Amino acid sequence: METGAEVSGQAGLAPYPVVEEVSSLLNRPADEIDASVSLGERADFSTRVSELNAKSAAGDPAAFYGQQLLLSRIYGLVTQLPEGPTAEGSIVVQEVLRQLEQATIAAEDGMLESGILDAAPAEPTAFLSWLKKLAKEHRVYKHPYYREFIRDQATADDLRHYVIQESVVDGRFDDLLAMMQVGTSGAAKMEIAENFWDEMGNGDPSQVHTHLFNQIYEVFDISPDELERSLTANALLSGNLAVLLCRYRNLYAEAVGFLGMTEWLAPDRFVQVVHAWDRLGLPDIGIVYHKLHITVDSRHAAGWFHNVVVPAAESERMRRAIARGTLWRLNSSARYLDERMPELASHR
Ligand SMILES: [Fe+2]
Ligand SMILES: [Fe+2]
């Protein structure tokens, strides 16, 4: 998988017209699509999506971008309230979605070091220590993108670009929690609920985290349209992995690992963002979100580990899945940050 080249912008999608063809279905009523798309056309979509996935797996940056852009657009059907009809529930679209998901899952699993999941200790607190050690020894931990680039070099324009890329997870963390908590009970549900209530500003609308995050957009004047156009393939992937894991009940344990690690890594990263913000003298209103999460997310991570991870880690199946989700987060975040390093990026 090529990670050095940063690919965004829809211009590179010309070899893969299937991305726009399927996208154009998404604001049509599901039943109408399913009645009008013939079996032959369905098979043709399937063939061309397989080809897109194969090219992506072989390292074609445009195919990887097209795959993740289409997946994110289809996920929009289940993560956003529509203004008109949508393809939500369409069998034709579901078939494409599943192909994209399977390829995305296979790519992440293909990046796991072989045998790593077998190395997890069985005792729950030892398991947690092992997870943290995995993270601390991973190149993503204290990555130079934050520790050097953001902290000491980034310009206001770099920060603007940075927050656009971060929107796919930070901009909807509350909805991710809401999706992943379905079916949980006891201490885990309570922990997710407390975390969610923090996301809701503990009842104060002006303190809702997504609202605070969006204040950055006001500083930088970023429109929703620019947002989609500017997202790189790896940023789209980060958001897609989060939705994928939070949405499927059989990936609940992976979501526990993925989101837990996201919270645990955030404080040190945000210290660097706040440092850059102060260094550049940008307006205070835009940095409230990051300042807040330096303390809130250390608390969230601790609560998550103690109340969600450790109790779940009694079972071997859960341990493997939590570790898998944790590693997906570490690995995908590392590739994303590598891509963002200025000397590697083809353009910024
Ligand atoms: Fe938050
Ligand atoms: Fe949090």
UniProtKB/TrEMBL annotation:
Q: What Pfam families has UniProt attached to this entry?
A: Haem_oxygenas_2
Keywords assigned: Oxidoreductase
The yes or no answer to whether the keyword Nucleotide-binding is present is: no
Top-rank taxon of the source lineage equals Bacteria
Q: Which SUPFAM superfamilies match?
A: Heme oxygenase-like
Protein name, entry field: Iron-containing redox enzyme family protein
